[in-house]
Amino acid sequence: MPLRELNDPALIGVGMTSQRTRDRLVGRLKEAGIVDERVLETLRQEPRHLFLDEALSHRAYEDSSLPIGHGQTLSQPWMVARMTELVLAEAPERVLEIGTGSGYQTLILSRLVPRVFSLERIAALKERAAERLRRLSAYNVTLRLADGGHGWRDAESFDVILLTACASELPSALLGQLAEGGVLIAPLEDDSGQQWLTRVHRQGQHFEYKRLEPVHFVPLLQGVIR
Q1: DSSP per residue over 69-111, as a string?
Q2: Which of 74, 144, 165, 223 stands the most exposed, by the fewest C-beta atoms within 10 Å?
Q3: The domain that contains 112 carries what CATH number?
Q4: Burial 41-74 (b: 16+ CB within 10 A, else e)
């Protein structure tokens, strides 16, 4: 984890939140089945309240999703932890995140993965996330404003691709950007409208799908909002 300057305003914000509150959240995550200590310690240390508007910052360490504007949400800590555990299980070097949102999931990944690439379709969210990540010295993250369904154009393949919005069908561009043996993790909607957190494993031109658990995410939308 990169060192930060002692007068960094992000650190001042961290100090405003009691360690006991963080510890309680981590305890709840453990009780709910999160076992990777690397993930738990990262969620304990990183300032989730900085990824919310000030009016909601007092709720940052609840295990609940919260609005961030533009019809988007900051996922509940359990879901961030669960998805991060699934990413780390692949020991990836390069991860592509579809849907930067507030930038909080991006930050957690950046502390645990060598390189993180993240796409956001809403310019205001992308710029806000970029500023937060800069303040927190997440220098191994590259952000881009783009339609996530097209993946990261002109990039090499990725060991893991993580979707933070729900699709009824995975875009072929994303499947094509998975490295051989790579894994895509995404909430996918079935014919009845139920969403499932799903692990997709690439073996050559074959993709093996495995449903993990029911979830609820905002939909994966097309286009860019500048």
Answers
A1: ETTEEEPPHHHHHHHHHHHHTT--SEEEEE--TTSHHHHHHHT
A2: 223
A3: 3.40.50.150
A4: ebbeebbbbbbbeeeebeebbbeebbebeeebbb
Given the residues 57, 64, 65, 75, the one annotated as active site: 75
Containing structural domain, residue 182: 9-215
**3 in a domain, yes or no?**
no
pLDDT value at position 221?
87
User: Is residue 68 in some structural domain?
Assistant: yes
Q: How much is the pTM?
A: 0.90
* Tens digit of each residue's pLDDT (9 = 90 or more) over 102-153: 999 999 999 999 999 999 999 999 999 999 999 999 999 999 999 999 999 8
Q: Residue 75 catalytic?
A: yes
Judge whether 226 lies within some domain: no
Number of structural domains in the chain: 1
Q: Tell me if 225 is assigned to some domain.
A: no
